Amino acid sequence: MIGIVWGNRPLYFVNGAPLYGYIGFGVIDRGTNVLQVRPTTLCPLNCIFCSVDAGPHSRNRQAEFMVDPDSIYEATLEIARFKGGGVEALIDTVGDPLTYPYITYLVKKLKRNPYISSIALETHGALLSHRLIDELDEAGLDRINLSIDTLDNNKAKILQGTKWFNIDKVKKLAEYIVKETNIDLHVTPVWIPGINDDDVIEVVKWAYRIGAGKKWPPATIQRYNIHKYGRKVAGVKPLKWSVFWRKIREIEKTTGLRVSWEMHEWKMEKRKRYPCPYRKNNVAAVKIISPGLFRGEYIGVVAKKEWLITVYGGRKEIGHTYYVKIINDKDCLLIGKIMGEI
Ligand code: SF4
């Protein structure tokens, strides 16, 4: 990894394996036919509700990452092959995939692969342009999951924490995607209770009106959530899941428009997981390779079977190897605590 400075923090380029085990970049397998593909952590926006504290105004991030396109392609292919094909590559990221300079190259490569059945990406749309949309269409992108949270330009600037963000432009480009390309559009507003209650309904009505959902569902309302390092909207508590789902049913009843979907409607199914080489409570030798995305975090490589791990536990030296106890292994996104230096 070589770092250059992006904003106030270093940007590391990640080249080669391993690309499994870390939430910030690489490939994530959650036991279905959808693989999360994360080639970049960068984002140009500063959404006030951002659960991953992305963007230029981030307070908790200490580093950013970008992965070599051939390396992330190989890592995606390895798991897609293991799963037997019919896999969706969902380029979702802890930032915005459109910051990735190799995005059309990556889509094109994935599209040519027989184990990948569809390619989608998630974005707030700030970096979309007619030219980029045409290039992505030509590269074979199947779907854009567009997260816009209001149709009001002034409100969008506040929600996205960015004065130059122009929701009118994003709307026009979204309509272009639906009408002029083979790319499908799925619209996914984040609902922040008390802040954009009516807006999310207007966004959903607009998505249906313009013809989103050519092959996949047209719209989903996302629940505002709080994460340890994420940004919180002052005075707003996330709805309990039971309350959220009750309100979603009410919205569906009053509008007559569906905003929640079953797995099969996403062409999603459970699949065997790529084998996870480590389990909770294992103690392993871990070489620290860089600072992690967030302050207090390091990224290490578990020495025996090359796998990434997030490491906590005080200031550590890059290049040194430590004994680490694995304290979390959910979806094989390993988190460990330093026990001592080797
Ligand atoms: S919510 Fe998405 S678009 Fe907004 S700052 Fe976070 S990563 Fe960027």
Automatic annotation (TrEMBL):
Database matches in Pfam families: Radical_SAM (PF04055)
Q: Which SUPFAM superfamilies match?
A: Radical SAM enzymes
Tell me which InterPro entries the record gives: Aldolase_TIM, Elp3/MiaA/NifB-like_rSAM, MJ0103-like, Radical_SAM_PqqE_MftC-like, rSAM, rSAM_sf
Q: Keywords on this record?
A: Iron, Iron-sulfur, Metal-binding, S-adenosyl-L-methionine
> Known CDD domains for this protein?
Radical_SAM
Whether Iron counts among this entry's keywords is yes
Superkingdom, natural source: Archaea
**Gene3D superfamilies xrefs:** Aldolase class I
Give all residue intervals belonging to the Radical SAM core domain.
Answer: 29-258
User: Which GO molecular function annotation, any one, does this entry have?
Assistant: iron-sulfur cluster binding
Protein name per its UniProtKB record: Radical SAM domain protein
Q: What are the top taxonomic ranks of the organism? A: Archaea, Thermoproteota, Thermoprotei, Desulfurococcales, Desulfurococcaceae
